[in-house]
């Protein structure tokens, strides 16, 4: 919690049974991150919210039809969340699909006077990020996984990046339809791992402020700059205790066009994958 | 063009037959605004893009079923745009529905080295707004229009505002699903009119820069601040020649939740409809 | 303290004998503001620091030569401050001149890891202003006072503003030589009064954040925008309890030229004294 | 000029005899940089403005007394500048001292409506820096030069940095009294060289914009971040043609205290000389 609450600035919603539920300051959901005490650092699962209530059951059937083993998670087992299913991808990404999620109910003295805002921002952590933006996952068979995410889960490709030899290095996909929600990066390891969770900040000044906050707390930072792909401006902080990495991101651009054509990058297009600054955060954590 | 191009910073895409096609710097479409020389100032129509190609014809049928007269606009009649339909709402809002829109093709020396960006921003107008954000329209029968926009066109209500006597003063709706795309404001006039078009800027510094640019050109500004509804930070400029108003907006918050419940405001909730600063731009233009 | 500490974000340095000593987050002095409990709201005095230690005594002699009654304030009477003199101007401004001031000594857990910074900014109030910028005082005989400030105290005029009838409305002077430190505004009242103290913030985003913080605490704000004179961007908050007004200011421009020629404004030069936005904070407090 | 005008955004004031005179957008002087066509890249001289007219002659006498050869530069020889003296330090820094400098006279259509601003910012280069901030010079005998700058020229030390072995690595001095105007860095080379000239931008967003502008023009950038010393946020661009480096800087903090005590850094105080990001610009140019 020193890292996730004090440094990163996530709000602690509640605790139960060894699990802490966290939410970013401008999120309208019960929580967007949970932390559970364990012996070894790792990611338990990534959750996806469906657009309609009935789609959880529909995905359950669809996944079963595709030969995927699903497990039902009962309403309330994860606090604030309705019935959900969990399953894993071929190489081991742990996913959850749910629809119902309680609305936030902050304490009176922390609540904003604006009805369309949850917290009074000036009574939260100065570096409080706004909302969850995307996750980055690593995967040996990236082309297959990307196609599966499109064909089965219904995600759309926003950008992709090929190495000079023509092999795929990364694919950036959208579940929401208007922004990148997951980045899938090639990794030579045999099993899938998890690189980072990104939370949004408002602008470049906030990135510098976030970096500054990490330095004052002696928390390692893995870079500052802007990615060419996604145009996201970034600053990465890493929890010294668990190795979990949080990206502060300005979220890049939004996809406003239903006829979006995926941006096709080749390694030779630009001199660097970072348009500005540098990034050196290559460690991942297991599921 | 002194106003829309030189001052506001929209890019001139092309001209044909007395019509100028304009686009904001970070739009991935052929154009987002057209200006046609006429004897009197007014808005010709508001265009809506469908999610899928077949939906233009589906809307044509649906609208006809609802007793609305539609007119087909052939592919290319509006440059860069495919087949479209035009029609008007009960009180006179002029709408167009289309799907196909050409992608932008900026001149080589203006094109960004980033494949996911259209223009090199530092070779555009310093005050160049990013993309079209929303329109605000005025209407005598706001409850009926809002319901029609939901039931027939499929828009969703994000926020609404009631006066102390319980009557509806405004409704903010989304077509895209993740942000407010149209604000419908009550007006005692008998027919529908048009108040402004909003284009996004990145942050509060840019709002001050936009305001500054207007002042240096002696263009009237109708306010600076933040709306309570939508949380949009704003600065409004008005074309001295035509009375058209452009809002520079930071776009407020994004709706990331499929289970969004409309924010219900009452006039008594806050002391002012502006959370910060002030706005005094009450003139509208006719269709 | 609800206003000055909780809302404005000044640091409480210490308390003694009914007086609270306050300092802004990035000030390298013991304090920049003191608050003393009294029956009626008012300003006790405005302090000026000399460039050299011996100048306090020199000013004592000089002022006595000019027929001004001075009172010595002993080292430590105002905590952290060395020997000082107090006196009042013809119409009643209460001034103090000092040289010695202790350096800040924040508690270990609040201290920055940077040796050239006092506090860890991310552990202070999110809206913490940086340092004191200027004061604005009101005065019936503004031309005489301005000349006295130049001739006796050695201040320099940076800008001045004449009404259309040729009479002086305001003079902006510098004690430091590189920025405006005091604004003297004409007032028809018979005696001198005090309008506001300005503290700096870094940029326009911070002005919006400061305004937002005031709104969440239901503290009245007297405007947002940019002054034509000084080019200072501003947001004014007023303590509901005492009527004291604090300006959040971006400090305008810096005077880097030793051969600066005062900017001479006439009421007819621009349509408004505010280049952007509006200001309506006309109440002053007595000495 | 592709670099200094088109990319960096300096204004071209005038040209005469193979020399181009440049000024930043918010400078109240005739020019702050001159470029002269030569066969080899190099810096001709660094100019210092005195506080009073008579001080040029006083410095001439003082320097002669200290055994320094001075050369008079007649009024107008450098356009816009009055009588000046030139001389070099022991190891070869080329300095000039002047007082008179003409005020800027921008063309009518570029002039701001604000009398306290030179150019209309929105009609200048979008990346236009505000004003010259400091120079960084490299020197074999840094302790001796720093003392000479204090004792003879009257500069003040704001910060200094010692290596772990106790030797001086850098000294940051102020001529103006309220900010760092020159950084003197240790170099093992036998003669003095010049590293960069810094121009200010307003905030961190502008640093990202400046970096972006360099990338779009394929101009090398030597880093983005914040220095521990001076707290200056930075982005460095290097002219591919001449090797001259321009720093975009937010100017760090201001020294408001006449009793400033130099900040004494030791290499062991922090893990890195950069508080944020990284810098790798080690090439210098000769005089």
Automatic annotation (TrEMBL), chains A, B, C, D:
<dbReference type="InterPro" id="IPR004360">
    <property type="entry name" value="Glyas_Fos-R_dOase_dom"/>
</dbReference>
<keyword id="KW-0058">Aromatic hydrocarbons catabolism</keyword>
<feature type="domain" description="VOC">
    <location>
        <begin position="1"/>
        <end position="100"/>
    </location>
</feature>
<dbReference type="InterPro" id="IPR037523">
    <property type="entry name" value="VOC_core"/>
</dbReference>
<protein>
    <recommendedName>
        <fullName>VOC domain-containing protein</fullName>
    </recommendedName>
</protein>
<comment type="subunit">
    <text>Homotetramer.</text>
</comment>
<keyword id="KW-0614">Plasmid</keyword>
<dbReference type="Pfam" id="PF00903">
    <property type="entry name" value="Glyoxalase"/>
</dbReference>
<dbReference type="InterPro" id="IPR029068">
    <property type="entry name" value="Glyas_Bleomycin-R_OHBP_Dase"/>
</dbReference>
<keyword id="KW-0479">Metal-binding</keyword>
<dbReference type="GO" id="GO:0046872">
    <property type="term" value="F:metal ion binding"/>
</dbReference>
<feature type="domain" description="VOC">
    <location>
        <begin position="131"/>
        <end position="251"/>
    </location>
</feature>
<dbReference type="Pfam" id="PF22247">
    <property type="entry name" value="Diox-like_N"/>
</dbReference>
<dbReference type="GO" id="GO:0051213">
    <property type="term" value="F:dioxygenase activity"/>
</dbReference>
<keyword id="KW-0223">Dioxygenase</keyword>
<comment type="similarity">
    <text>Belongs to the extradiol ring-cleavage dioxygenase family.</text>
</comment>
<keyword id="KW-0677">Repeat</keyword>
<keyword id="KW-0560">Oxidoreductase</keyword>
<dbReference type="InterPro" id="IPR054560">
    <property type="entry name" value="XylE-like_N"/>
</dbReference>
């Amino acid at each position: 919690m020193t890292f996730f609450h004090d440094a990163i600035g996530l709000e602690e919603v509640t605790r139960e049974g060894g699990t802490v539920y966290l939410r970013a300051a401008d999120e309208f959901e019960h929580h967007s991150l949970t932390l559970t005490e364990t012996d070894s650092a790792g990611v338990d699962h990534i959750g996806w919210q469906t657009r309609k209530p009935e789609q959880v059951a529909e995905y359950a059937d669809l996944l079963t039809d595709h030969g995927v083993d699903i497990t039902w998670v009962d309403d309330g087992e994860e606090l604030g969340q309705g019935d959900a299913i969990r399953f894993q991808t071929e190489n081991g990404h742990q996913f959850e699909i749910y629809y119902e999620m309680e609305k936030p109910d902050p304490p009176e003295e922390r609540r904003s006077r604006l009805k369309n805002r949850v917290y009074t921002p000036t009574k939260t952590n100065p570096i409080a990020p706004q909302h969850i933006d995307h996750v980055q996952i690593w995967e040996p068979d990236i082309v297959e996984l990307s196609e599966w995410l499109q064909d089965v889960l219904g995600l759309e490709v926003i950008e992709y990046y090929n190495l000079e030899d023509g092999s795929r290095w990364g694919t950036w996909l959208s579940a929401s339809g208007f922004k990148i929600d997951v980045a899938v990066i090639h990794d030579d390891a045999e099993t899938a791992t998890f690189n980072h969770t990104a939370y949004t900040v408002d602008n470049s000044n906030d990135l510098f402020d976030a970096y500054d906050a990490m330095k004052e707390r002696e928390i390692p930072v893995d870079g500052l700059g802007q990615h060419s792909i996604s145009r996201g401006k970034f600053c990465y902080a890493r929890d010294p205790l668990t190795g979990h990495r949080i990206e502060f991101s300005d979220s890049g651009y939004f996809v406003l066009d239903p006829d979006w054509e995926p941006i096709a990058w080749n390694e030779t297009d630009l001199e660097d994958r970072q348009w500005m600054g540098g990034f050196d955060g290559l460690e991942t954590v297991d599921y």
